[in-house]
Amino acid sequence: MTPTTRSNGQDQLGRSGSAFPIRLLSLTLFAVIVGSAWPTFARSLDPAYDSQESTRTESMTQGVWRWLRLGIVSLHVLTACNGEDGSDGPAGSGGEAASLGGNAGLGASQTAEGGSATGGLSVTTGGAPLPSGGATTGSAAGTGAMPAAGGAPATGGTQPAAGGTLPTTGGTQPAAGGTLPTTGGAATGGDLTNTGGLANTGGLTTGGTATGGYAPTGGTGGTVAGDTICGTAAEGEGVTLTCPDGQIVDSVVFASYGTPSGSCGALAIGDCHSESSASRVNSLCAGRGGCTVYASNSTFGDPCNSVVKSLAVELACVVGDPIVDEGIPFKGVANCAASELAALGATWCHNWGTRPEPGYCDDPLFVPMVRAKGTENVGDAFSRLEAEIQQIGNAGYDTVLGFNEPNKTDQDNLLVARAIELWPAVTSDPDIRVGSPAVSDDGRAWLEEFMAEVQANGLRVDFVAMHWYGWNEGSCIPSALEGAINWAEQWGLPVWITEFGCMGSSHPDEQTLLDFFPPAAAMIESHQLVERYAWYPWNPFNHLYLDDEGGGRSITALGEAFAAATQYR
């Protein structure tokens, strides 16, 4: 059993806490005195002592000194343990005893009154704080490397959530298409259609493909950025879209005939949508300074019967001049010898028939026309027209002109109702573009009724054909012709002037026609919906070539003016 200290200074065996150290001190002093005097006493008894006992003396002396040091140390220890209260045993002296290898039991026997924490060498207590024993001088946990205060992941280490490189704030965000030069973020720099990248939010106007690609603000092939223009039209109406001065239509950003929704920059396709919307608008508008598009079944087909439809269009403009494509014929002649076409610079011709005539209007400039008579049986006419369209397609032609002046009795002489019955045969080949019947100046009401029926019945007309001759007094002027063109453009379709010249009461002469044609040709070219025109030289002052005295053919002054006009659209 481990001894314990009583409060009156006696241990369990009844020994006084003060007498025992005094005895030990007396014995220690006695040993020191005897060890010091012993050599002298030994010489008096034996003169040979020095030589015989020097070695033993040294050993003995060393032993005495060892006992002396042990006694002194023991005295210190016992004195410290002998205090009648805790004030006689300071914590510092207890720590020194521990460093000398003091008995853990002696050190540990102390309680709150004796400072056991400083006396023991216990690793597990090792200076742990006790109420009054030396906690401040030990290696207390408070001054050590406590995990909570030093380098814990929560406060001391590199915390990925706050200190590391986070992909959401510092890294390249793959969802936005990589490192974006505009802002670096996903919202304004990514592949979204409105603000950088995708169809509605990506980069059409600010960030992605729009500024670097081909849509509204990027242009194509390095073209200078332009503006975006939008327009809408209810079914049966047209919308005119015009780029700012010096710009042309570059591409169709959005087009839907059906039930589109949204506003400019955020248009969306509805439940009803014609798949031909974009291609039709592109064919009418691309490369032009402006265009008129008619919202009708005749333009786009009927994507949803019995549903009220509308048209919404968004176009991208770029800085540039109207595109001149030598693959698209523009200036032509009706009823002209093939040998004269090249000198006149004509790029197309027609002869009111379904096949070219060798030596006259010949390939590759020829455009066929189908005809019908009101006196013909409707069934026979329908079958014949279907067969002719098939033959035209087999011959490689991709465009056909409709009936010729059906409003006149000396021409095709068709009622609108009969023309509507026959029209599905004329449009039976979807790969052949079909022009409307071409009416004379006094047949506008007929064509308006026909186009209304086309729209009501979901039929197809790809372009409007018209004739003009300036019959009235003083009407052989460009502005009179422009009035007729404006009327033909009301349906928003391309316009072909398949016959025009100056005739009748305008009493044209050579000079009148020379004054008329150059500005008229320029005016026609300014109308982006006019795809082609064909001059018809059927009276002396409209001729482009005349017989000469040598029996040949010579170009006229008007022919030279015609040859100088633009060939291609």
Distance between the termini: 121 Å
Overall geometry comes to: globular
H/E order of the elements?
A: HHHHHHHEEEHEHEEHEHEHEHEHEHEEEH
Q: Structural class per helix/strand content? A: alpha/beta
Q: Overall mean pLDDT score?
A: 72
Which percent range fits the helix content?
25-40%
Number of helices: 16
Beta strands, count: 14
Query: Major sheet: size, sense and barrel closure?
Result: 5 strands, parallel
Which value, in Å, is the CA radius of gyration? 58 Å
Strand content: 5-15%
Strand order of the largest sheet: 7-6-12-11-10
Low-confidence stretches: 1-21, 45-57, 72-223
Task: Give your account of this protein's structure.
It is a single chain. By secondary structure, the protein is α/β, with parallel strands linked by helices. The chain has 16 helices and 14 strands. The chain has helices at residues 19-45, 49-81, 91-99, 104-108, 116-119, 186-189, 209-212, 277-285, 297-300, 338-344, 378-394, 416-426, 444-456, 478-488, 510-526, 557-563, and strands spanning 225-234, 238-242, 247-258, 290-294, 310-319, 331-334, 348-350, 399-400, 433-434, 464-468, 495-500, 530-535, 545-547, 553-555. The longest helix is centred in the N-terminal third of the chain and has 33 residues, at 49-81. The protein is globular, with a radius of gyration of 58 Å. The N and C termini lie far apart (121 Å).
